[in-house]
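Researcher: Going back to the complex we discussed earlier. I've cleaned up the inputs and rechecked each line, so this should be the final set. Can you rerun the prediction on the complete assembly and write out the structure?
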Amino acid sequence: MPDMTEAELQALTLSLEVALRSVLFSLPLAIATAWLLTRRRFAGRTLLDAFVHLPMVLPPVMVGYVLLLLFGVRGPIGHWLYHSFGLRMAFTTRGAALATAVMSFPLMVRAIRLSLENVDRGLEEAARTLGAGALDRWCTVTLPLMAPGILAGAVTALAASLGEFGAVITFAGNIPGVTRTLPIALYSALQTPNGEASAARIAIISFLLGMAGLFAAELLARWMRPRLGR
Amino acid sequence: MLEVRLCLERGDFDLEVQFSAPAPGITALFGRSGAGKTTLIHLLAGLLEPDSGWIALDGEKLFDSALSLNVPTHRRRVGCVFQDLRLFPHLNVAGNLRYGLRRAASQPQRITMERIVTLLDLGPLLARHTWQLSGGERQRVALGRALLAQPRLLLMDEPLAAIDVAKREEVLPYFERLRDELTLPIVLVTHHFEDVVRLATHVVLMDAGRVRAQGNLPTVSLTPELGALLGSEGVGAVIEGRVESIDAASGLATISAGQHRLLVPGGSLQPGGALRVQLLARDLILATAAPVGLSVRNQLQGVITDIKAESSHNVMVSLDIGGDALLARITTLAALDLQLRIGQHLWILIKAVSLRGHAR
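Model: Rerun complete. Updated structure for the full complex:
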């Protein structure tokens, strides 16, 4: 493989950073949402379900625009974050991770929800008769049995995060070293005269990264399967 | 001692039961599928909430609708062996066994890991994953796991249903050991009468959400309610006795039941062991005079206590053989011919080969 330039390497590490931060931030929320949607009956459940899935059907640019309205320094949430905690979201790496997280959230929730639906309630009942309270059961029976689904959700979200473009460029911009992730770098290279070689290198990096991710997920799943009795 | 009075209505099914289960011993909930046995087990475990009634275990209330008392399942200390066993697939055998044990750490550990491992022969299985176990092994692990949670009551829902008939013998002796060594009440759901004869010390007969009869097996075996459940071919008194001796040459065991002696096929019986014998009503022959020159090995004497028409051509004769009671089905024609009447003294003949002793 031809040598990467400093800028391409930067885009790679930045992409990984954004994707990891996005997944780590959204994972607990996705588990909580999956639990709400699967195990709780409450008014507005259908509405929450639809809302979670919105990013899948809306144009990513529009999601980025809505984030800008909400999380921009003058937006209601952005204003509060900035004045209470000094946190700036728009046009920062943190913002890129937020936009990525919002976009990949439905994928993650779907995978986790599916795994929660497949958890045998009978096993939780058995845990109850063995003296385990609600939180105890959740941690020692439900979560371990969901682990493959959580992993699948996290990996899918990670892979999607690496490729997120529209929402990130709209909300976080195209700032080298701050928000210029691989796909944005690829786009920028194509816009630059004589950028074809760089674009090709970034495309190859993205491809290899994706393959490595899928491969790692498969290995993990194989390692986990016997530990779950399947 | 478990005492229960519960009502539950769910759609077109309603359950209304009152029974008690003495300790130590196995109380069999016997009935067809759909009678409400599994529902009752779920109510006792607290996995379902009854509409009204109470559950008292050793005098302590676990549920009482009048007091709005409902001890949650995880604090009831009611062990459960489910029909589908429900071993945790993400834990190995030792992990499964320890699950309840850890959570009962504050209780006095009367049932220790060593004792369960010995009692149920689990030693070689401890490091295995649950999917590497045979049906009988899974059964034993589920049983051990429930017992290690230090329960005050053990519920077993069709524990033998998942095991094919040939393998039952592999598990039954363990149940007998539990019954004889543990002091807690055990409630066992079954629709196999043979399990009842073999294991139960007390029987609760259920049908359509109601208790139809309860008591010790010899008493319940005489009730028409049991007859209705077993069908006319299965009706017959169960008597309890002890193996006196086994004659190696004839292969027959002599058993004593009350003042009577009976010969039954020796099979796997042990001298001195307690056993039960079911004398099917259709297998009994009645004679008004002492018979001679017959191949029949068992002759008892008794007095007729009741004669009931069963159908247009059969009658059921109840007999008292001095303490124990028997049922004999004969044709109406035979009853008329012999001029049978209540209070009449009779000889009762039973072929040894028609009997089967169940060690208990």
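Model: Worth noting: The longest strand of chain B covers residues 236-247.
Researcher: Good, that matches what I expected from the previous run.
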